[in-house]
Design brief:
The protein is of the alpha+beta class. It has four helices and five strands; from the N terminus they run αβαββαβαβ.
Length: about 140
């Protein structure tokens, strides 16, 4: 599987590429600290005993785009890993995650499970620390 991007968009899924996402994350952290709003990062991982090829990745990115708001940031961060950055707390993240998981149940690929986690940003936390904390967060498996 080839994972490539032009610095702005992932070539397969057309969601944000990691470099663009990192810049957006830094900007959103700065904005949230100035406005005292909450931002939340949601991580999604597709998993299977078999190799995961293009179709499930494209399907997931389309589902995530439909379930998210226009101002949310969606990125493909690895071969089967996606992040969504939203303005809102864990309640908003739970609603978006529920929409994505239920649509994955209807439109997803059999044999590929969807795992997710989310955390809200803490005041003064750097972008790297925020993402490290998300990485250490335990993933839940979609049960829809």
């Amino acid at each position: 599987m080839v994972f490539s991007h032009d610095g702005l968009r992932d070539s397969l899924t057309r969601v944000a590429a990691p470099p663009f996402f990192y810049e957006s994350l830094k900007r959103e952290i700065s904005l949230s600290e100035r406005s005292e709003s909450t931002i939340t990062a949601m991580a999604f991982k597709l998993a299977s005993d078999q190799a995961i090829y293009d179709y499930p990745l494209i399907t997931f990115s389309e589902i995530a785009a439909r379930a998210s708001r226009l101002e949310d940031h969606i990125a493909r961060m690895g071969a089967t890993n996606f992040l969504i950055l939203i303005t809102g707390d864990s309640e908003v993240a739970e609603q978006i995650t529920a929409r994505i998981c239920s649509q994955w149940t209807l439109e997803g690929v059999p044999g590929i499970s969807l795992h997710y986690a989310w955390i809200s940003h803490r005041a003064g936390e750097s972008a790297l620390d925020f993402l490290d904390r998300l990485d250490s967060q335990g993933f839940e498996t979609s049960s829809f």
